TrEMBL record:
Keyword Cell wall biogenesis/degradation: no
Gene3D superfamilies to which the protein is assigned, alphabetical: NAD(P)-binding Rossmann-like Domain
UniProt xrefs under NCBIfam families: PRK07231.1
TM region positions: none
Keyword set, alphabetical order: Oxidoreductase
Similarity comment: Belongs to the short-chain dehydrogenases/reductases (SDR) family.
Listed Pfam families: adh_short_C2
GO MF entries: oxidoreductase activity
Protein name: SDR family oxidoreductase
Residue intervals of the Ketoreductase domain: 8-188
């Protein structure tokens, strides 16, 4: 599909999970040198094992919590040392939240905003010199259909993902003079560990396959999405073919938003 990724460098935050890993793999398969990050723990260990078991030469898995300024500064130093410039940044790391108003916790709200929103600014500002050094760079942030339509009990997650819609447009103006494009990819239901964890919270007794069929029926395309569906949209936006596209959003939701 996209061409011209050979010799390019990319950083995918939250690359240890479903969408991030698929995106990192797509970039790697297209010839880019890719670094991913995740917090210390099982996810990072599994990603490192997958990299070494599958001989994914050139792929780097960094330990970094995107809500920590110190971690992001250290990741930036490593990227500087290893890559020297950054052609592609994918702000993918995110956490879900199901918080009802009668149990509102400012700490939880702050955490959701830190990971889903503040991190985008933190990471971009940290790697800005590297993006500038690429002379023509592209950023994609992963939003959500919840930036537009939603269900009850999701107000903190919705606040975070809606914020990314406005932030993307404003950042497009700030970054354009440096020849850096930024766009948002907003998925509907995608089969990843996050979705499965969410179902376990909302419907602990239900069979995941039944929930998957029900969720699929809500999407005009007749199924829920795969991480690869999202990665395809990211690959288009970070490719040279999208060179005149900035400050906009692609919904990868199987048409779900058309229904509501
Ligand atoms: P996963 O849970 O599979 O992956 C989430 C990723 O984010 C993991 O790699 C996780 O890494 C990382 N992460 C979470 N918190 C932090 C942190 N503080 N610092 C660094 N990394 C962190 O979920 P998805 O792949 O589904 O989610 C990816 C993105 O897609 C998120 O932004 C999510 O909101 C969005 N999205 C997902 C949808 C879905 O249906 N799946 C729908 C719409 C949007 P680790 O745990 O190893 O630290």
């Amino acid at each position: 599909m996209s061409s011209g990724f050979a010799g390019k460098t990319a950083f995918v935050t939250g690359g240890t999970g479903g969408i991030g890993w698929s995106t990192a793999l797509a970039l790697h398969d297209a010839g880019a040198r890719v670094a991913i990050c995740g917090r210390a723990g099982d996810g990072l260990e599994r990603a490192r094992a997958r990299i070494s078991d599958n001989g994914l030469a050139g792929m780097l898995a960094l330990e970094a919590d995107v809500s920590s300024q110190t971690d992001i500064a250290r990741a930036g130093e490593i990227l500087q040392e290893r890559f020297g410039h950054l052609d592609i940044l994918v702000n993918n790391a995110g956490i879900d939240s199901f918080q009802r108003l009668d149990a509102f916790s400012p700490e939880r709200f702050g955490k959701v905003m830190d990971v889903n929103v503040t991190s985008v600014f933190l990471v971009i500002s940290q790697v800005l010199p590297l993006l500038r050094a690429a002379r023509s760079a592209s950023i994609v942030t992963i939003g959500s259909i919840h930036g537009h339509i939603t269900t009850a009990g999701r107000s903190d997650y919705v606040a975070s993902k809606s914020a990314l819609v406005g932030a993307t447009r404003a950042l497009a103006l700030d970054l354009a003079p440096d020849r850096i494009r930024i766009n948002l990819v907003s998925p509907g239901a995608i089969e990843t560990p996050m979705l499965l964890r969410g179902w376990a919270v909302k419907a602990p007794d239900a069979d995941p396959e039944t929930l998957k069929a029900k969720a699929g029926a809500l999407h005009p395309c007749g199924r829920i999405g795969t991480p690869e569906d999202v990665a395809s949209a990211v690959m288009f936006l970070v490719g040279d073919e999208a060179g005149f596209i900035t400050g906009t959003e692609i919904l990868v939701d199987g048409g779900m938003s058309c229904r509501l």
